[in-house]
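Hi V.,

You were right to ask for the full record rather than a summary. Here it is.
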Amino acid sequence: MPRTVGAVHSVNEQITSRPGLNSGRHAVRIRPNGVSSKYYKTGEQRAALVGDLFENLAPRYDLINDLQSFGLHRRWKKLLVEMAEVKPGQKALDLCCGTGDIAFALYRAGAEVVGLDFSPAMLAAARARAQKLPARANTPPLEFQSGDAMQIPYDACSFDIVSIGYGLRNLESWERGLEEMVRVAKPGGRLLVLDFGKPDGWLWQRLFFFYLRSVVPLLGAILCRDAAALAYIHESLQAYPAQRGVAGKMRALGCREVCVRNLLGGAMSIHSCVKNG
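Predicted structure:
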């Protein structure tokens, strides 16, 4: 069992429904107020707007992640890689790879890794980092490729590990994204999803969503001169099903060993499952 990080709770196969944001008549529906995001739209416009968003964020993306998560995102990504249970020589695909944190960690763990992203600025940053990575004997170099996570440009059953960190929520269809992850995974391959979650506790819900809609946009205003860039996080999370919806879709796709690890009381979560076959 991978070690736990911080306040981590493991829930295997079934997540008990409790009153909160996700269920029941006591659900708290917190809508954006103050800063709204010009980058959040549903439908066909979404991909282009998200592309614009990440082009703007790319120069300061790592700094923004460190500041808004107090550096904890690095520990959560490390936990995801531990949950991947990498074996030397396995092939791994990291979707929406950004500047490459998860891809580099999978590579260091012994996998042959491809990072996929549709943002040229993010890929440029990842490739620049890769230039500084020591070569590993008898292993193909880490690759970063341009591509769409909803139409992954690889054949079915190509990868032992398929991961996505803070990307599933940004897709025009998160369901389609999961379907593509399952398609390109080998039978017995492991799928992993790290993203924002929706806490169940009433008070923690209030505090967390206040932080996302009122404090985080200030970082966007200061670092990017664009508060809407980080107001996007809160708005995109409203329509994202988080813990229960993603786990349910994994089961509907026939995956086994579905597991959810809640981080920071459910403010973040890591899903993992194994493709049947």
